[in-house]
Amino acid sequence: MKKTFLIALTAVTLFSCKNEEKKIEEAPQDDSYVVTANMNVKEDDNFQIYYMETPGEPLDPNKYVSVSVKGKETPQDVVFKLPQDVLLADLRFDLGDNKKQKEIKLNSFKFDYLNKSFVVKDSLVDFYFGYNEQVELDKKTGTATIKEIANQPHDPILVAKSTLNDELVKLVK
């Protein structure tokens, strides 16, 4: 009797462990595209990335990710997790809403999708990004100085050049 009970208990335990292992293995993989901007941001601010899934596609004002940042003197990662199933091919990076923000050191941009990544270092920001007249970029250090222009709303931006678009497309292939 005791032997039958022990055999039944062992079988139930093994069956339970096997089911738990299957549940862990069957967990869906998060295939969200992640963009990490490592920056020195001295003032509190709010940054946005507008994303397009085709290079040159018109910007859709509803397709963006926004991240609030606390200002500090040291570098910090600002992480933008795009919605599930978005395959990034083009982007616009808005350099903050805070008009008091005068200088942002762009240390790097890292683009991650599944097990692939691509990094743009500070001295290559100009090679991969264009920018509007409200941004003055030191091409050696990747430091963006924000300028206010009379009769224009505050909207300093970086836009992906075709060199970056090509790298973004490679990540999803």
**Rg from Cα:** 23 Å
Gap between N and C termini: 61 Å
Number of helices: 3
Silhouette: globular
Measured by DSSP, the beta-strand proportion falls in 35-45%
**What is the makeup of the main sheet?**
6 strands, antiparallel
Global mean pLDDT: 88
Quaternary structure of the protein:
single chain
**Spans of 5+ residues with little confidence (pLDDT < 50)?**
5-12
DSSP summary, beta strand count: 11
What structural class do you assign from the helix and strand content? alpha+beta
Describe it.
This protein is α+β, with helices and mostly antiparallel strands and 173 residues long. Helix content is 22%, strand content 38%. The chain is built from three helices and eleven strands. The protein has helices at residues 2-25, 125-128, 162-171, and strands at residues 34-41, 45-52, 64-69, 76-81, 90-94, 103-113, 116-121, 129-131, 135-138, 143-146, 157-160. Strands 1, 4, 6, 7, 9 and 10 form a six-stranded antiparallel β-sheet that branches. It has a five-stranded antiparallel β-sheet with strand order 3-2-5-11-8. It is globular.
Q: Which short descriptors sum up this protein?
A:
single chain; 173 residues; six-stranded antiparallel β-sheet; five-stranded antiparallel β-sheet; globular
